[in-house]
């Protein structure tokens, strides 16, 4: 005999199914509705400020790569679609060719990342690995290097001023707290069969390497935790696209 669905359960199930169906097709629209209904009105301006700061941090990163020409850099923050909603190629040929070398660096590095179920596919996870590496660098620039504390939330401002400590971790620096928080996001595990499947068809690296991969490519992490040069988290050769 099947179990009776709790009162309200059918409605909740229908709502969940509807959201799962819409998510792939209308992700941004659903996120807007979520923010409007869940994030309190007094926090929304602060969240918007944080997003703007991260965008500014990423824009700063774009000035660092030597493989991008000025024409491509000037187009990076623009839409990928033209006014007729046609997807267009906006990288110059020179930039496209120059991108091959740093991208291959990520592919080669990823091949050295292994879990008990096997090693990662650097080609499959390339896009997400580049995004993970660039994203954490942009966030770090905002959280640690941004000197305009008036535009930051109270927590970020306190980090900037090196005055906040986590309960039970009073000796952690602002930099160490940032990296600890970044790693905490990906805490988790998978069953062996699920992990094996993900290695072959998932475009994201396993959680462990979404942390260790990007952070091992950041000199700031090695400096914060005094990692010896040549160790796993401070390799002599660090990979970077952005």
UniProtKB/TrEMBL annotation:
> Cofactors per UniProt?
Zn(2+)
What Gene3D superfamilies does this protein map onto? Collagenase (Catalytic Domain) (3.40.390.10), Neutral endopeptidase , domain2 (1.10.1380.10)
Q: Which Pfam families match?
A: Peptidase_M13, Peptidase_M13_N
Peptidase M13 N-terminal domain location is 15-73
Record domain Peptidase M13 C-terminal: where: 81-239
- GO cellular component, as recorded: plasma membrane
GO MF annotation terms: metal ion binding; metalloendopeptidase activity
* A GO biological process held by the record: protein processing
What the entry lists under InterPro entries is as follows:
MetalloPept_cat_dom_sf, Peptidase_M13, Peptidase_M13_C, Peptidase_M13_dom_2, Peptidase_M13_N
List UniProt keywords, sorted A-Z: Hydrolase, Metal-binding, Metalloprotease, Protease, Zinc
Please report which protein family the annotation says this sequence is part of. Answer: Belongs to the peptidase M13 family.
PANTHER family recorded for this chain? FI17812P1-RELATED (PTHR11733:SF167), ZINC METALLOPROTEASE FAMILY M13 NEPRILYSIN-RELATED (PTHR11733)
Q: What is this protein called?
A: Peptidase M13 C-terminal domain-containing protein
